[in-house]
Amino acid sequence: MQTVKLNNGVDMPILGYGVFLVDPKECERCVTDAIDVGYRMIDTAQAYYNEEGVGNAIKKSGIKREDFFLVTKVWITNSGEEKAAKSIDESLKKLQTDYVDLLLIHQPFGDYYGTYRAMEKAYKEGKVRAIGVSNFFPDRFVDLCNFVEIKPMVNQMETHVFQQQKVLRKYLDKFDTRLMSWSPMARGENNFFNNEVLKSIGNKYNRTVAQIALRFLTQENVIVIPKSTHKERMKENFDILDFELSSEDMETLRKLDKGESIFVNHYDPEFVQSIINY
Ligand SMILES: NC(=O)c1ccc[n+]([C@@H]2O[C@H](COP(=O)([O-])OP(=O)(O)OC[C@H]3O[C@@H](n4cnc5c(N)ncnc54)[C@H](OP(=O)(O)O)[C@@H]3O)[C@@H](O)[C@H]2O)c1
Question: Among 137, 138, 133, 183, which residue's Cα sits nearest to residue 161?
Answer without folding.
Answer: 183
